[in-house]
Specification:
160 residues; globular; 6 helices; 18% strand; CMP_dCMP_dom; alpha/beta; five-stranded mixed beta sheet; 5 strands; Cytidine deaminase; hydrolase
Length: 160
């Protein structure tokens, strides 16, 4: 039996976490690791205890902000970082696996918290129709290692 790489294990987990999202627009999952250990996980959605978009707003989803993004939800990488910090886990020097490249706001948080590497599956710019991945460029500029996950993983959720 072939042993999978940790990159594959963590990205597959991020994909499965994305399937937990209640967002009707996009499902995104994230895994925050140090070396070969998971320190936190997250997926996009409203803060705990508020509501589930697919249940409360099944036709339209939450209201949108000026850029067309959900005005109520936290992004998957935000949820993973916040949960780690809430539970007194240091994210300094960690690696973040995420199914969608970080937006600029998330990139600023990732950099500020000391995450040292981001591995993403899909382009945020392509998803949003933007000319380039602002978050990836920001992280590159300020010394956070960023790489696009190169392997194909099949899944059956069209929103991921």
């Amino acid at each position: 039996m072939e042993r999978p790489d940790f990159d594959d294990i963590f990205m597959e987990l991020a994909i499965n976490l994305a399937k937990r999202s209640h967002c009707i627009k996009k499902h995104v999952g994230a895994v925050l690791t140090k070396e070969t250990r998971i320190i936190s996980i997250g997926y996009n959605g409203p803060p705990p205890g508020t509501h589930n978009c697919d249940e409360e707003f099944p036709e339209t989803g939450c209201s949108r902000d000026s850029k067309g993004s959900c005005s109520l939800a936290l992004h998957a990488e935000q949820n993973a970082i916040l949960y780690a910090v809430k539970n007194n886990a240091s994210v300094e020097g960690s690696t973040l696996y995420v199914t969608l490249a970080p937006c600029l706001a998330c990139a600023r948080i990732i950099y500020s918290m000391g995450v040292s590497k981001v591995i993403y599956m899909y382009s945020y710019a392509e998803y949003k129709g933007l000319p380039f991945d602002e978050g990836v460029d920001f992280l590159d500029r300020f010394g956070v290692m960023v790489e696009k996950y190169q392997k194909e993983i099949s899944f059956d959720d069209a929103l991921i």
